[in-house]
Amino acid sequence: MVKEKKKLTRKRRHLRVRKKVSGTSERPRLNVYRSLKHIHAQIIDDTRGHTLVSVSTLEPALKDQLPAATGNAEAARKAGEILAKKALDAGVKEVVFDRGGFLYHGRVKALAEGARSQGLIF
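Above: the chain sequence. Below: its structure as tokens.
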């Protein structure tokens, strides 16, 4: 019962955020999803419906840089840094941040700070 309520609450928060946040060609949307063991992020141009850049702690390139655990703030920070590097290589400098209904705390915050540290603006 509690698990379903938490999911529903997150979905409602996400819908509330998505009413206001939309990615354009000039400023695409940085979407974050976190599960218990991993974190995923992608930069999306909502006008065309295309994913420009994505990163996940499941990727072999990122897994090699991490010790053992992938569900912690350090892994999220690394994912944010790699996402920012990929985005800058793709020509994306500014994004709008979509936290996906998750609270801006812990791993979501670490991913955002990692991306900002590498020069992504939001």
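The chain has one domain: 2-117.
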